[in-house]
Amino acid sequence: MKIGIIIGRIGGVDGVALETEKWIEVFQKMGHEIFIISGQFEGRKIDCSHETRVPEMSFFSPESYWEQKKAFFHPDFNQDELIEHLQLYAKVIEDKIVKWIHQYKIDLLLSENASCLPSHISMGIAIKNAVIKTNKPIITHDHDFAWERGDRYVSPHPKINEFVENEFPLRLPNSYHAVINLYAQETLKVRFNRNSVVVPNVMDFTKSFGLITDHNKNIREDLGVEKDDILLFQITRIVRRKGIETAIKLIDKLQNDKIKLVITGNYADDAGSEYYMDLVDLIHDLKLSKQVLFVYHSFSSKSHSINTTGKSYSLSDAYAHARACTYFSTYEGFGNAFVEAVLAKRPIFVNNYKPVYWPDIGSKGFKTVMLEDNVITDKALKEMQDVIHNDNLNKEIAEYNYELGKKYFSYDTLEEKLFELINIATK
User: Fold this and answer.
1) 12 pLDDT band (50/70/90 cuts)?
2) Rounded to an integer, what distance in angstroms lies between the CA atom of residue 75 and that of residue 335?
3) What is the CATH number of the domain that holds 286?
4) Does 182 lie in the same domain as 275?
5) What is the CA radius of gyration of the chain?
6) Is residue 210 part of a domain?
7) CA separation for the pair 421, 406 (Å, rounded)
């Protein structure tokens, strides 16, 4: 079967792009031929035989940037003219998608987050109109919904809110939903009476990950820590919902100068660097400047890459040197970093981020030290100390979680889910 994937950008390290790459791998393993149409291909050359770039589909295109600004941030524009603009550029994108569908004889479409979240309104409309015009079945991979983002997608324009409500998520007779957690499945059913298949984020458990190698064996020296230092890793972006302040408070409570918190994420994703500065202030107040390290400059999404400052490490290299991982998020759509830590055989200290962690992950039986509302109780602190200092316990937990992860969050699970979706969409 020829499957056509529609996505705003691919090749980067955001969750949508990463999961799409995994779906592509499994689709190809199943024998399907994959075609991609996108506004942006990051860090990769375009394969002209199977990949098509449409500049207007990029989140960073002038058209998308302007419509987001006028719809949600600076509504100093006539709403009727704004809707006219959306429809105009939707038609431009629609025509290119329809041409692509016919050119490559696409059998089944897959919309990657573009038909559920109005982060590129005209692209979402274009996909809907292209589906109506071609009558092709479409699976919408819904990572996020507008109502999950607070007031981010609430417009001062009543007509825009009505417009978004009518267009997102896509609700056509020949559209079928894949969601990433049980809460999204329940909400979609309650709000729109739409059925969906829960497809968890997965990792490839057949590949080595988080191992000591010749490339990363000197990482401690490069990061400026001692060989006998105990490293807890926070392998996430620096944004407020990641709860990194709880990891910093943990370092303070552990009262051990040899324990370091290593934060790999870049604060570029933190609007105005406000959260980053809050973390810096907390580190200063707790006098932890020698124990909390920001090392984003040493890590790249691409393994074994070299940047202008010298050697650059991958996230796999980071996990290789972690004694345990901190993951005190207050909200996640699923939890890629959790599954990565499981694959790397590293224990995890986690917050019970609602409404996803316990129903979708924790209830499967993973052994973690779990906080409620990011409160570090004496009991939780003692459990974390045991995991950090007891070699046998540390290894036992890691191995147990790995086997559980392989059962629930591997490519085998993804293949089963994709087979189910294809059957539903093409019956």
Assistant:
1) confident
2) 34
3) 3.40.50.2000
4) no
5) 23
6) no
7) 21
Q: Give me the half-sphere count of Cα atoms (radius 13 Å) on the Cβ side of residue 311.
A: 14
238 and 368 belong to one structural domain: yes
Shared-domain flag, residues 311 and 369: yes
Residue-wise pLDDT for 26-79, tens only, equals 999 999 999 999 999 987 889 999 999 999 999 999 989 999 999 998 876 678
Residues 419, 395, single domain; the answer is no
- Tokens encoding 238: 């620096």
pLDDT at position 309, please? Answer: 47
Residue 209 falls within a domain, yes or no? no
Tell me which residue range forms the domain holding 376.
219-408
> Max CA-CA distance within the chain?
66
Does a structural domain hold residue 356? Answer: yes
C-beta of residue 141 within 8 angstroms of C-beta of residue 22:
no
The predicted structure's pLDDT at residue 306: 41
Instruction: Indicate whether 142 and 251 sit together in one domain.
Output: no
The token pair that represents 208 in the structure block: 């080595």
Q: Which two tokens stand for residue 414?
A: 């993804």
- Helices 378-389 and 391-408: crossing angle in degrees, nearest 10, is 100
pLDDT in tens, 117-158: 999 999 999 999 999 999 999 999 999 999 988 888 999 888
Tokens of 158: 């009543």
Q: Are 177 and 228 part of one and the same domain?
A: no
Q: Which residues of 354-373 are buried (b: 16+ CB within 10 A; e: fewer)?
A: ebbbeebbbeeebebbbbee
Whether residues 326 and 190 share a domain: the answer is: no
Strand extents, DSSP E, 329-372: 348-351, 369-371
Number of structural domains (the chain) is 2
Lowest mean pLDDT, pick from 208-212, 298-302, 306-310, 325-329? 306-310
Distance CA 234, CA 394 (A): 17
- The Cα 147–Cα 187 span in angstroms is 10
Residue 154, CB-side half-sphere exposure with 13 Å CA sphere: 5
DSSP string, 171-217: --TTEEEEESSHHHHHHHHHHH---EEE------TTS--S---TTTT
- What mean pLDDT is reported for the chain? 93
Same domain, 173 and 252: no
In a domain, residue 211? The reply is: no
Measured CA to CA, the distance from residue 262 to residue 293 in angstroms comes to 5
Cα dist from 179 to 110, 198, 257, 362, whole Å: 13, 5, 43, 18
Give the Cα separation of 40 and 20 in Å (integer).
14
Q: How far is Cα 56 from Cα 100, in angstroms, rounded to an integer?
A: 14
Confidence grade of residue 294 (pLDDT, cut at 50, 70, 90): very high
